[in-house]
Design a protein that fits this description.
160 residues, single chain, globular, mainly alpha
């Protein structure tokens, strides 16, 4: 069930075919299932790939919610980290651009949904068990399904 919810979150966040094609490969969408079947030695790396997928989904939602440049940059870092071959490689990618994560919260105006997304993003980074990650996935999916992105863009069109 959790693998299904993870895939549903990815589809909810990367709604267009172009976004899905750019950000997600088959191994990315299957990351949770791969994690569930990983050998003991491979579990930490597979868990990190799930974490990256959830974090990317949340940053994509935040980017779509407010067209925020810093969230787009962090999303790109997470996307690069997803191609890493080990936990150490993931850490290197993230560490190299740590300043972008720090700036993510600077001068950021968000509405209630944006705040919820950022809180879930922080919980994703803090999650260190399957159960904690499952809870974040579930809440993120619920939030992604509640946000009416079409209405947000309709408001933008009316402002022009």
């Amino acid at each position: 069930m959790s693998a299904l919810r993870y895939e549903q979150l990815l589809r909810a966040a990367f709604r267009t075919d172009a976004d899905a094609a750019y950000y997600l490969t088959e191994p990315d969408t299957a990351a949770y299932a791969t994690f569930e079947h990983a050998t003991r030695a491979d579990v930490p790396f597979r868990f990190e790939r799930v974490r990256l997928g959830v974090a990317m989904s949340l940053l994509k939602l935040l980017t779509d919610l407010g067209d925020h440049e810093e969230s787009r940059r962090v999303l790109d870092v997470l996307h690069r980290a997803l191609s890493a071959r080990s936990v150490a490689d993931i850490d290197n990618v993230i560490t190299r651009d740590a300043k972008l994560f720090e700036r993510l919260y600077t001068n950021l105006y968000v509405n209630d949904e944006g705040e919820q997304i950022l809180q879930l993003f922080e919980r994703t980074l803090d999650a260190d068990t399957k159960e904690m990650m499952d809870a974040v996935i579930e809440e993120a999916l619920e939030l992604a399904q509640e946000i009416d992105f079409d209405a947000l863009h309709d408001d933008d069109d009316e402002d022009e």
